[in-house]
Amino acid sequence: MQTYLQDTGEVFHERRNLIGSMFVEKIFLITPLLKWYLNNGLVVSKLHQIMQFNPVRCFKKFADNISDDWRAGDRDSDQAIIAETSKLIGNSVYGHSIMRKDCHTTVHLSNLEKIITKKRKVTYDLLIQLGIFVYSFAKS
Q1: Three-class HEC string of the chain
Q2: Which of 12-21, 95-104, 106-115 has the lowest mean pLDDT?
Q3: pLDDT in tens, 42-94
């Protein structure tokens, strides 16, 4: 970055923005994003796992139902509540899949005292690949 600023004659100003970092360990990347990073200078030093994508429309019926409900809500205002509910269900599917289960706690209330305990064992049984792909692909 310093070389870039010197080459362009620009001055560094401290900012409080979210930035993408080119230094990570064990990150889950989808192919289009990885290709972009590689074309822009990312060096991959180690691969831990590769997943093959099989183009099957396993959620087609679900997605069609959500879309049909949206269209019905646009045509008929009496269907608006169903359309909004379907929208929330559709959006929550991939949001739920990337839930951080390691942050879950259990709260017990006893005689005006709140006891918070962390789970001892966490089972990761969600389709994290689905959520990561949807969020990553939305950026490209």
Answers
A1: CHHHHHHHCCCCCCCCCCCCCCCCCCCCCCHHHHHHHHHCCCCCCCCCCCCCCCCCCCCHHHHHHHHHHHHHHHHCHHHHHHHHHHHHHHHHHHHHHCCCHHHCEEEEEECCEEEEEECCCCCCCCCHHHHHHHHHHHHC
A2: 12-21
A3: 888 888 888 777 778 878 898 899 999 999 999 999 999 999 999 899 888 87
Give the other-Cβ count within 10 Å of 73's Cβ.
19
Q: Cα(93)–Cα(33) distance, rounded to whole angstroms?
A: 22
3-state SS record for 23-39: CCCCCCCCHHHHHHHHH
Question: What residue type is assigned to position 90 of the chain?
Answer: G
How large is the average pLDDT for residues 29-45?
Answer: 84
